[in-house]
Amino acid sequence: MNIQVLPDHKLSSVAPLKPYNNVEKKEVELILVKDRNGVQYTNSSIIPASNTHGCPPGSAEDEDRETWGKKIDFLLSVIGFAVDLANVWRFPYLCYKNGGGAFLIPYTLFLVIAGMPLFYMELALGQYNREGAATVWKICPVFKGVGYTVILIALYVGFYYNVIIAWSLYYLFSSFTSELPWLKCGNIWNSNNCTERQLLNGSFVMNGTSYSKHKITPAAEFYERGVLHLHESKGIQDLGLPRWELTLCLVVVVFILYFSLWKGVKSSGKVVYITATMPYLVLFVLLINGITLPGAMDGIRAYLHIDFKQLNNPSVWIEAATQIFYSLGAGFGVLIAFASYNKFDNNCYRDAILTSTINCVTSFFSGFAIFSVLGYMAVKHGVDIKDVATEGPGLVFIIYPEAISTLPGSTFWAIVFFIMLLTLGIDSSMGGMEAVITGLTDDFQILKRNRKIFTFVTAFGTFLIALFCITNGGIYVLTLLDTYAAGTSILFGVLIEAIGVSWFYGVDRFSEDIERMMGFKPGLYWRLCWKFVSPAFLLFVVIASIVTSSGLKYDGYIFPQWSSVVGWGIAMSSMLFVPAYAIYKFLTVKGTFKERIAYCITPEHEHHLVAEGNIRQFKLKHWLAI
């Protein structure tokens, strides 16, 4: 290695070096620049910072990390994770309820100023450092706790999300009959009050109960009594034993997840060829069939009606902000994990724009397939669209299946629909579990050496906890987990993540990392969003989620007070990792108070500055980076 010392006035005469990836490994010329005060330093534009392994990104030592077989594997995995059940069962109803086409204004605004920047930030963060959600915080060690926070949240979500996939599988198996089981009353699970749809008319909604909330139809009783056995539970305190039919479905789901993930992205990258593309094919087929039904155009017109007056309602903006955040899936550590398996010079900027746009367009497109059928349902029962429009499980497990059961070839349409739900859920669940596995195997080498065993343990662990959600009162456990496990806690986690990257690691330093990967720096717009707009947006959503939160309930059932305490305990169990690890890190490093602070907020590859006592120089470099 040749070492050459130049005074700063000669720096401009130094010929620009080739990109770092092309530097010959045999001999590197290190240029130390001496300023007028005699302080020697290296210019980061000449010598790139090392990555979290302590070796330069893209170097031979970093090439051992597995990469995606093809670029399309990565794109389909990201799209498959981001496009999930909520795109079908939540966005269309939100759009309809909040002003139709007018809702697209705040939704698109929040996509551009916050959704895409956060999406881009996570992809770039994972790709440059080639680490999972925890170890990526070697860029600012004090924030490593937020990595454990998002990993734990992703694990919590797996506890109940797999159950929804198991429901879809149960419905799929039940659809292989000449007559769908939720078409008529008279089955073993039906109550004496069960009333078939042709005996109902619009008069029953006069008492204030919409058709979508009516609980005595064959479809509603099949879901609540035939699948959930909710009538056999008195509440969350009365769970009962797991249902054996749902247990078998859950076993199948967990096995699919395990064999999709056990070999890493080499195996999961192939599974998404089916799970990520199938929903689009099915949605298109359902839409073509839906628009041929009587009343379909009425449903689509109701979906697209524009009511600008709704924009005066703050709740519309809150729901748009919340939906865009959950829709893109930032903050679960999944995007960081997926991007960490990219090649170092992959254009993650283009990937972020492409995949986030596809996700949001899919949400909008699915509304046509949903509301064409809801329009048909409204005509069939002689009610308004508002009486059949709903969201969540009630839409995909009651209203839509009931509509399908009245169509010619209903068995075929039911099978197609539930295959779509199954594939929508599987690839999203794969993403969450990959975030857990990558995040922890990168942090603990013993787990990395035994990835297959650890993947099995993780999958089996989620299965055991999920058993609580398939008991007679399991829907209450699922509702509690869905409300608290990834509610305020995930918003808090991403807020801390955005602050850590933008204000402590530094937007300028982060931009230089991106330049090393792709050859160009992010524009001023992205840097402003990362530093100011995205943290402000997340703070707004966190406050809104807390202010608008209400007591825990499922339909008419009000949860006991202790269940809310348990829920907040689950939420705090993940959030507390942030301050707990910060305190732990501060107490375990050596040095004076200032040196400890320096170690905690300096990237690990710059710790030598602190170790050499250059606190003053460290402070200058750090705050200039901000």
Topology record:
Blueprint: E1 2-7, E2 29-34, E3 40-42, H1 71-82, H2 85-89, H3 91-97, H4 104-129, H5 144-174, H6 218-227, H7 244-261, H8 265-275, H9 278-290, H10 296-304, H11 314-328, H12 334-339, H13 348-381, H14 385-388, H15 393-405, H16 410-443, H17 445-449, H18 451-466, H19 474-484, H20 488-518, H21 524-547, E4 553-554, E5 557-558, H22 561-575, H23 577-588, H24 593-601, H25 607-611, H26 615-625
Parallel strand pairs: 1-2
Antiparallel strand pairs: 2-3, 4-5
Domain count: 2
Based on CA inertia axes, which overall geometry fits? globular
CATH domain fold name of the largest domain: Amino acid/polyamine transporter I
Q: List the uncertain runs.
A: 1-56, 616-626
Reading side by side through the largest sheet, how are the strands ordered?
1-2-3
Give a count of the beta strands, DSSP E runs of length 2 or more. Answer: 5
Helix/sheet category: mainly alpha
Characterize the largest beta sheet: strand count, sense, and whether it forms a barrel.
Answer: 3 strands, mixed
CATH class of the largest domain: Mainly Alpha
* Percent in helix: 55-70%
| Number of contiguous helices | 26
- The overall pLDDT, averaged over residues, is 85
First-last Cα distance: 32 Å
